[in-house]
Write a structure and sequence with these properties.
Blueprint lengths: L1 H20 L4 H13 L4 E2 H7 L7 H10 L3 E5 L7 E5 L1 H17 L8 H15 L1
Antiparallel strand pairs: 1-3, 2-3
Helix pairs in contact: 1-5
Protein name: MarR family transcriptional regulator
Pfam families: MarR_2
InterPro entries: HTH_MarR-typ, MarR/SlyA-like, WH-like_DNA-bd_sf, WH_DNA-bd_sf
Length: about 130
Amino acid sequence: MLNILYTYHWYVEHTKQVFHDFDLTMQQFNVLRILRGRHPEWVSMSAVKEVMLDKSPDLTRLCDRLQLRGYLERETNAANRRQVRARLTPAGLELLRQVGPKIGEAAKAWSHLSDEEALQLSHLLDKMRG
């Protein structure tokens, strides 16, 4: 377990500068990435929260900041007025296009693993979570 936690923090340290350069947090990037996966559809905030890597941040405030910067838009679902949903804007898509290659460069720290080893590690981590 200690090795997994150590590796997580090692990875965060390797990617921290990329997020800093784009004035993003890892959680904000995660929300944008989730919305890109469903683009151009509207996605409920509960669906976003369900698949977030870090479930603890205040999603409303996090999205407020992203919306102020023009990266996403939100609306109340007309069919269910209690549901708020969001989608990426063109500026959000462009930001992800710019950040993606930089994250890829930071991920080169993992490049000493073969594709087979990376897949095996992924399977073992899935197995560990049950």
